[in-house]
Amino acid sequence: xxxxxxxxxxxxxxxxxxxxxxxxxxxxxxxxxxxxxxxxxxxxxxxxxxxxxxxxxxxxxxxxxxxxxxxxxxxxxxxxxxxxxxxxxxxxxxxxxxxxxxxxxxxxxxxxxxxxxxxxxxxxxxxxxxxxxxxxxxxxxxxxxxxxxxxxxxxxxxxxxxxxxxxxxxxxxxxxxxxxxxxxxxxxxxxxxxxxxxxxxxxxxxxxxxxxxxxxxxxxxxxxxxxxxxxxxxxxxxxxxxxxxxxxxxxxxxxxxxxxxxxxxxxxxxxxxxxxxxxxxxxxxxxxxxxxxxxxxxxxxxxxxxxxxxxxxxxxxxxxxxxxxxxxxxxxxxxxxxxxxxxxxxxxxxxxxxxxxxxxxxxxxxxxxxxxxxxxxxxxxxxxxxxxxxxxxxxxxxxxxxxxxxxxxxxxxxxxxxxxxxxxxxxxxxxxxxxxxxxxxxxxxxxxxxxx
Length: 452
Prior knowledge:
By secondary structure, this protein is an all-alpha fold. It has helices at 2-15, 29-48, 54-61, 65-68, 70-81, 83-90, 95-114, 119-136, 138-147, 150-160, 163-181, 184-191, 193-205, 225-234, 236-267, 271-300, 307-327, 332-346, 349-359, 366-414, 416-436.
């Protein structure tokens, strides 16, 4: 408790530093997009690099699949405990200051992972990485939503959402190679460096944009959190977008967490080679998909808002079964090819979903919205590996560790169909809900919302 109070006090003091933009700070939307995408990418690297280290960490500490998956659940603890308070602060204080502080904190915590002397210490360090993320990441989307108008946010936030696929490539390929050539501890230490550099760049060179400058009628008053909850969880379209994307995130985190392990167990690949395949599959197809979906949404969405939900919904409906089919292939080449196709289809939802939700929000709701979503996605991201690991351990009793893991991953792939159903539900209500939120912030009256 004392630790949380000290951390909270430090955040408040840091965020309360003078907010005047120095002469070195630029108001270029594209510079902001590049720097904040870099920050998000580094954050994803520091989060996902542990996935390629599952096998060496298991070996050093003698863990099961279920136990090692707890490194993912560690993030959820911070999202729940600190995320909302940090986001409410970001609605009032200079967001770039919080972004730079959070980036520095999670980078130091990543380095601490490499210095951990026990399994418990490693878990505590991972909680520290999560703490830095909940402080530093909620403001990213809010800043970019103030730099770009609504008609360009689909593409802008899709570029921001390149962070997961690019981060996955660097984390899996770079992390796997470093761990193979040196050790898993060195991987964490090296992964900490870029974040420290970017934290300084974000603070010194990116200007804080005026809130709501592209949203006519936006005031300076910060709406109560009840109004945020109303728009996010009571509006039918937003609620279904949240549920669908949370399910997709849960399945994706679980599959990515154990894909390198599957390559090692099923095909007897070295850690570096397995990391290379995982990184390539998790990066290029997903990057192309995220940008393509954002671009299609900006093209078709203004005339037909339902497109913002129909595009990712259709892709998830097809991509999930393809992933399940891929996992059962006995040939490595065919498996990798099919998983690449499935990855393209299953990750396009990222940018377009965030852009659509941001368009449904008041400008002074956006950081809080991201924090609330991070709580949801943090829990989903922790549950995904945990549930898949539990299924893997259960199936391994009769099928062995390799086939048991493959069975668990195939079932998880099929579950993407569940996520797609919520996108189709969201599409039915999206046009009406977008029209509804053009007026001032509504009273949080659930009875006013239509049922899904």
